[in-house]
Structure formats: structure tokens, C-alpha cells
């Protein structure tokens, strides 16, 4: 039996192949009427070509996702859920699929990201899908790429934020990165982290970063985290309460 490597589970039939989930939860494939597929058959039988092409491209997606996750690691490490890595792999695979130059199986991220549409795919990506930005931040905000500044006018922490029950303070920070995806290198700039009390008071919120070096793929991330005071010490809440969102990608 051959294992299927994909960003999603496949169950059902395709031509002479049957896809199923085994008792260990692994996605596997076999030829119809047979109990399993040997490694040798999988490698030599042309009926498996589609699966092998898909597997090669998904392996490339996984490699790119490692860098994608690392760029804003200080943010994602404080705000992510159990599906984070899988969703990052899926996003990279979707960009690879935009490659219109190479045939299926040979498509690359470098060609796929050349599409103007593909450059926007990272926008809205959440480190923690359980606490997406639109459910946490309940007011309008503005991002200015020229000044590299995120602003909220008349920001009121008490009413503009969906607070976890035990939180007493909110942490906000901005990150801007340039990803040289061809060389798997990146430059990242972070704003100062602002910490505010859970109080009914308006203020002008502004987060600014330096502009990173390079102009390959620019990404901007917003981090919103929470903490509580315990015996006059600040204790950050679990990352399942926090939010990291990609606001901008070009």
C-alpha cells in the first residue's frame, strides 16, 4: 500500500485507484480489486503518475512552508493552533499550482508567485484559526505600506477588542518581512510592542516598522496577544487566545 501525501484527505476512486483512510488514520491508495500496492508497483505503474506528480509538488510546498513559518516566528510562536503547519503547507501548494509555465509535477513556487493574484493568497492567513482577526478586532484599521504604519483612530481597548475572560492586558505589535523566496532568505523588521489595559479609554493606536531590505515578496503581520496580572506579575495567556494575521502581501 502506498501512502498519499497531500494537504487534504482523499477518499474514493480515481480511474483504477482507490483512496482510503487506514486504521492508523493514514491516507493510502491501492489498485481496485487488490488489497494493497507495493512500493515497486507504485514506482513503476503509470496509473500512479498523477499521485507521484502531486507528491513531488507537495514536497516543494512543505519546504517553502518551513521558511514561511519561520519569517514571523516570534509572532506565530505566540499565536497558533494545531492546524497551523498544515494550513501553511496548503497555502504554499496553492501558490505552486498557479505556475502556468511548467507541467503538473514540475510546477514551482518561484513561477507560481509571479501571478498578481497568487501574491495576494497569503492575505488573511491566520496563525490561530480559532481566533481570526475579524473576531478579535472589532473596529476599522488602516495599513500604509509607504510609511509602514498600522493605525486605528479612537481605539478603545474595552469595546474594540473581543477579550478572553481572564485577560487584563492586550499586547499589539507589527511585523514586516521581505521574502527572497528564490534563495529562501528573508529580512524582517518588528515594531515596538504596545501593552494596554482593559480600560474604557480612547487613544490613537499606531504601530510602525522599518522597511525590510529587498523587494521580492513583502508581507505584513499583526500580532494581538493577551496577558493577566498575577501577584503583580504579568503572565501571558496561552497562544490559543492570541491572534497573528497577515494583513498585506505584494
Short summary:
By secondary structure, the protein is of the alpha+beta class. The chain has helices spanning 39-44, 49-71, 73-76, 84-96, 109-112, 116-119, 133-136, 157-160, and strands spanning 2-3, 12-14, 17-21, 27-31, 142-144, 149-155, 169-180, 185-190, 194-197, 203-208, 217-230, 233-236, 243-249. Among the domains are: 1-42, no CATH class; 133-249, Immunoglobulin-like (Sandwich), CATH 2.60.40.
Identify the notable features of this structure and list them briefly.
about 30% strand, 6-stranded antiparallel β-sheet, alpha+beta, about 250 residues, Immunoglobulin-like, 4-stranded antiparallel β-sheet
Could you give the topology of this structure?
Layout: E1 2-3, E2 12-14, E3 17-21, E4 27-31, H1 39-44, H2 49-71, H3 73-76, H4 84-96, H5 109-112, H6 116-119, H7 133-136, E5 142-144, E6 149-155, H8 157-160, E7 169-180, E8 185-190, E9 194-197, E10 203-208, E11 217-230, E12 233-236, E13 243-249
Antiparallel strand pairs: 1-4, 2-3, 3-4, 5-6, 6-10, 7-8, 7-9, 7-11, 11-12, 11-13
Helix pairs in contact: 2-4
What does this structure look like?
- The chain is of the alpha+beta class.
- Among the domains are: 1-42, no CATH class; 133-249, Immunoglobulin-like, CATH 2.60.40.
- The protein contains eight helices and 13 strands.
- The protein has helices at 39-44, 49-71, 73-76, 84-96, 109-112, 116-119, 133-136, 157-160; strands at 2-3, 12-14, 17-21, 27-31, 142-144, 149-155, 169-180, 185-190, 194-197, 203-208, 217-230, 233-236, 243-249.
- Strands 7, 8, 9, 11, 12 and 13 form a six-stranded antiparallel β-sheet that branches.
- β3 (17-21) and β4 form a beta hairpin.
- α2 (49-71) packs across α4.
Amino acid at each position: 500500500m502506498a501512502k498519499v501525501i497531500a494537504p487534504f484527505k482523499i477518499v474514493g476512486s480515481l480511474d483504477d485507484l482507490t483512496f482510503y483512510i487506514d486504521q492508523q488514520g493514514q491516507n493510502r491508495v491501492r489498485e481496485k480489486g487488490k488489497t494493497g500496492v507495493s512500493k515497486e508497483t507504485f514506482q513503476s505503474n503509470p496509473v500512479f503518475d498523477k499521485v507521484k506528480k502531486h507528491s513531488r509538488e507537495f514536497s516543494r510546498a512543505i519546504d517553502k512552508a518551513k521558511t514561511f513559518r519561520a519569517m514571523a516566528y516570534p509572532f506565530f510562536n505566540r499565536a497558533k493552533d494545531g492546524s497551523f503547519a498544515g494550513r501553511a503547507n496548503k497555502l504554499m501548494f496553492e501558490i505552486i499550482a498557479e505556475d502556468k509555465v511548467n507541467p503538473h509535477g514540475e510546477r514551482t513556487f518561484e513561477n507560481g508567485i509571479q501571478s498578481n493574484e497568487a501574491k495576494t493568497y497569503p492575505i488573511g492567513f491566520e496563525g490561530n484559526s480559532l481566533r481570526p482577526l475579524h473576531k478579535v478586532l472589532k473596529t476599522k484599521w488602516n495599513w500604509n505600506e509607504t510609511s509602514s504604519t498600522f493605525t486605528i483612530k479612537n481605539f478603545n481597548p474595552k469595546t474594540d477588542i473581543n477579550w478572553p475572560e481572564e485577560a487584563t492586558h492586550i499586547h499589539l505589535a507589527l511585523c514586516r518581512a521581505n521574502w527572497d523566496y528564490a534563495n529562501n532568505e528573508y529580512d524582517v523588521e518588528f515594531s515596538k510592542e504596545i501593552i494596554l489595559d482593559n480600560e474604557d479609554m480612547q487613544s490613537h493606536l499606531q504601530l510602525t516598522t522599518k522597511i525590510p531590505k529587498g523587494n521580492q515578496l513583502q508581507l505584513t503581520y499583526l500580532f494581538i496577544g493577551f496577558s493577566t496580572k498575577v501577584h503583580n506579575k504579568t503572565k501571558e495567556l496561552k497562544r490559543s487566545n492570541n491572534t497573528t494575521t497577515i494583513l498585506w502581501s505584494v
